[in-house]
Amino acid sequence: MIHHIENERIIDEVIKSDKLVLIDFFATWCAPCQMMTDVLHDIEKDFDDKIEIFKVDVDENQEATIRYGVTAMPTLVFFKDGEEVERQVGYIGKEEIKNIIEDLNKNL
Known about the structure:
The protein is of the alpha/beta class. The chain has one domain (3-107): 3-Layer(aba) Sandwich (Glutaredoxin). The protein is built from 4 helices and 5 strands; from the N terminus they run E-H-E-H-E-H-E-E-H.
């Protein structure tokens, strides 16, 4: 299940997971962000045992947006054990995300 983060403090907790964590910084008015939502639902189904996915609305969470240096949407930030390990800006397809997840899980 993809979770929405409503509070910046929650980010600090979720990124400490022993699983790979993906946070999608998005905006409701952003067309590529809406397309990314469908891709992330597919990814979540395929990798539910290897990754946790969260979404952060940049308009409602400006502090988190600034803290993580998000300047364009969508921005996908991958974390492992509380540390950022990968970042992708702009729409990317399912296969590219799958490859990133597989590489990160192999190398971490």
